[in-house]
Amino acid sequence: MDTIIKIESNLTFEYSNQLLFKIDNNNLPLLVEQGKIYGIYGPNGSGKSTFINLLNGFVCQSEGEIIYYSQNKVTYILNKTNFSSLFSPIIISNLNGGIRRIFQKPSIASELNLIEALISVRRNAKKDGLFDFLNPFNLIKGIVLQSTKEKNEINEAINLLLEFGFLNTNKKISELSFGQIKLISVLQMLFSKASLILLDEPFSNIYEDTIRQLILKLKKYTSESQGTNSIIIIEHKRDYLEELADEIWTFNDKKIMIENKKNGNDKN
Amino acid sequence: MDLLLSLLTKFFIYAIFLFSLNNIVIGKTGYWAIGHIAYFAIGALFTGVITVIFHFTGYYIYLALFGSIIISIIFSLIPALSILRLRGDFFIFVSITINELIKLLVELISGPSGFSNIPRPPGLTTDLSLMCLSSIIFLILVLYASIFKYHNLNYITTIVRQNEELAKVMGINVYYIRSIFIILGCATAGAAGSLFAFYSNSTDPQRFNINEAVILFALCAFGGIDSIRGTIIASMFYVLILFVLESIFKGLFQIYTTNITSIIFGLILIFSINFFPQGIMGKRGL
Amino acid sequence: MLFDLLKYGFFNGIYIALVSVGFALIFNILRTIDFSLTDRMTFSGYVFIISEKYIKGLISSHLQLPFVEIISILVGCLLSILSCIILTLIIEKYIFTPIKEKGTSILIITSFGISVIMQSLMSIIFTNSTIVSSIQEYSIPGIGLYPREILVLSFAVTIMIVLNLIIKKTLFGKSINALVFNYELAIFHKIPVKKISSLVFGISAFIIAISGISLSVGFGIYPNIGNKYMIYSFCACLIGGLKNLYGTVIASILLGVFLQFGDCFTSPIVSESLTLIILLVLLYIKPEGLFFEKIRVI
Fold it and tell me: Of the residues A193, A214, A235, which one is the last residue of a structural domain?
């Protein structure tokens, strides 16, 4: 299986000159491989969310490198020298098949309606420049074509929403409750078809039966599409992690350890 | 009839400018560019420089129209680049500073009373032709704006405006999207300024000071942010109020016109921003 | 010549510093800059000029009192300071307090609205021309300073020291800090938010009125003079940092000297533009200089 992200074994993260975590894996790098689900487990304040932010390019490690691959080719190396707090997140989220994440505190642009919120994650960066919009030829043609092209996507989005009990799909995000927004942000990830999704406590504030449904969906997400998509998930509830993850990384005592390694074929 | 024509021309020119402020810069980027009138001033100033100082004549005067767009784009790089480092309130500060700077530049180049007797290019010598040109420009802008909601940029700008971090996570180049809209808005404002210089034949620096900027911002808040109908109604309202006040305070008391307009719009601004944030036509709050 | 320039620049800087201190005080309450502050300065200057003139006429026509000038100046000062404080408190109570929770951007825009209204009202009432107070000033022989300048200087120094002591040492200063950091918590801890807010606005109005009076005697005022001082003090605040009073004051004085030299060797427009360019560059380089807020991620 191909590696998507390689986190060098000397990676450390310091927060105002205090060590937050480092990697403790017998001097081997941490690998994120295609088609696997990685669970992150650990006490509060052990740097789980920071780790996700690190993978996403929002913060920078103090030592070590994170290397991103696409089809066994290095596409981006995140280290201290080429980190920019402005552009690294943008570059990283556009790498290979796209890297998407949800925040612990759910945030979706509140003016969008549910369908737009879902469609907006699965986007093609090339097609939405201003010049594409201003081109008068594309203008007339674009409207007609786009509406037919996107019809499939819209249907897909509506089906997904219906599956999770959102009957009125034209609702604005601002009309939803906190838990519903959280659910929608998880659904966004499921809809995104990104090659890696980073979930920061996705199941908090969500009804238990829905969580079961989501777990099934998440498993399906990695097994579908020839197993190219992977998930990294932070969760406090051990049961869910055991059920979902192929590999659990434990954050404890300022160290990241690989706890158990299931064989990838076990799922089947 | 002449009066109506003149009012209509003024309306279209102000509508173009307000469109650039309300529907492009504030509406799409979410940044409150109070000092956007600076680009109006740049357009008018450049037109004055080309025609009065360099004595361009004939069809060369059209260069002023295109030149002012280009100069506006160059100056718009200042706020467009500033968003790399600043956000929120700081953009307001940068915008005000640019406005004051441009006002001083206008005074430095054109003197305290501004240029006068700016000639019009052939083909635009009558008010009717000027009105046609500005109405065509405005119609094109409105056409694009009404089609905007079908394009991907619609939800991209929404996400960028409402949650920058989220937009970054979705791989949207936030800075590119914002700066491109700022540049576009400034270019449109420059064109409106150039048209205004042709229309009024003069560039009065007092037209570009911070009071006028606040008035125009008040018009945006009054009409409703990012609403086309709001823009049209607000600019109509402004032109009418100016006309009424000007006809009341003719001659000696002409100084009162600008001051009373300032007071009216200052009150409208405070009122609408606090109690009426959606404006008369807008769907979105401030 | 050089000494004169330095002196004028220094006193110009003192005015800028007074306005900056006003900005800094209000910043503590509103958490943003109130741009209508300098228009209240203009207002107090106008009130002083008119009340002084009127009272002098009143006294000299009806009463036979010694020291007519001094009495009229004192009464004028008193009236001007009082009216400025009352106006400020009205604005604070009926405009700023109800919308404080709506965010700083709305406060900024509202303060601009107030500024525009005040400027237009003043230019309707007093016309656009510059008015100078009719008081005859005599410079103290030997030093070459006017008594007014010495008074303003000593006032500025006192207010700086007292304010710094208050904010650092007393309970009042601590509750101001509490307001800055967490408004809800301040209410929860039963800090009298409204009283403190009015008090701080009142002090700012007092400081501003002094500089307004001094300006009206020294240079003369016109309705739009506020914009100029607003930009200068804003620049000084940005260089010095709003939380650091001494830094702001030093920056203001340096700016005043710089402006004076600029006026002398080039032209007022050029020196003002240079200040604005400096301001713009500072906004780019040091955006956290104003609020001392680091831009955090997530």
Answer: A193
Tell me how many degrees the CA angle A137-A141-A143 measures, rounded to the nearest 5: 125
In a domain, A103, yes or no: no
Domain that holds residue C248: 2-128+145-291
Shortest distance, CA C287 to any CA of chain B (angstroms): 7
Report helix, strand and coil shares of chain A as percent, to nearest 5: 40, 25, 35
The letter for the amino acid at C33 is I
Task: Tally C-beta pairs within 8 A across A and C.
Answer: 7
Interface probe for B, chosen from C90, C106, C112 (most Cβ of B below 10 Å), is: C112
Which pLDDT score is estimated for C182? 65
The minimum CA-CA distance between B237 and chain A, rounded to whole Å, is: 29
Q: What is the pTM of this model?
A: 0.89
| Complex confidence, ipTM | 0.87
Round the average pLDDT of chain C to a whole number and report it.
83
Sole residue written with tokens 């995104």: A192
Q: Which of B103, B241, B253, B274 to mutate to test the interface with C (most CBs of C within 10 A)?
A: B274
For residue B159, give the chain A residue with the closest CA.
A109
Look at A112 and B159 and tell me if their CB atoms are within 8 Å.
Answer: yes
Work out the burial of residue A117: count CB atoms within 10 Å of its CB; fewer than 13 is exposed, 13-18 middle, 19 or more buried: buried
User: Are both A89 and A217 inside the same structural domain?
Assistant: yes
Measured CA to CA, the distance from residue B169 to residue C91 in angstroms comes to 43
- DSSP letter at C221 equals B
Give the closest of C120, C273, C297 to B263, CB-based: C120
Highest mean pLDDT among A198-207, C133-142, C285-294: A198-207
Q: Is residue B184 less than 8 Å (CB to CB) from chain A?
A: yes
CB contact under 8 Å between C276 and B92, yes or no, is no
Q: What single letter denotes the amino acid at residue C57?
A: G
Instruction: Kindly state the tokens that stand for C184.
Output: 């809800």
Q: Say yes or no for a CB contact (<8 Å) between B86 and C283.
A: yes
Contact B182, B83 (CB under 8 A): yes
CB A9 within 8 A of CB A258: no
How confident is the model over B71-122, as pLDDT tens digits? Answer: 999 999 998 888 887 767 788 888 888 998 998 888 888 888 888 888 888 8
Using the beta-carbon criterion (under 8 Å), do A107 and B284 form an inter-chain contact? no
**A147-161 pLDDT, tens digit each:** 556 678 888 888 888
Q: Residue A77 is part of which domain span?
A: 1-98+194-268
Q: How many residues does chain A have?
A: 268
Q: What is the CATH number of the domain that holds A231?
A: 3.40.50.300
Asked if residue A30 belongs to a domain, the reply is yes
In chain B, what residues touch A121 (CB-CB under 8 Å)?
170
Q: Is A58 on the interface with C (CB under 8 A)?
A: yes
Confirm or reject contact between B93 and chain A (CB < 8 A): no
Max alpha carbon distance in chain B (Å)? 60
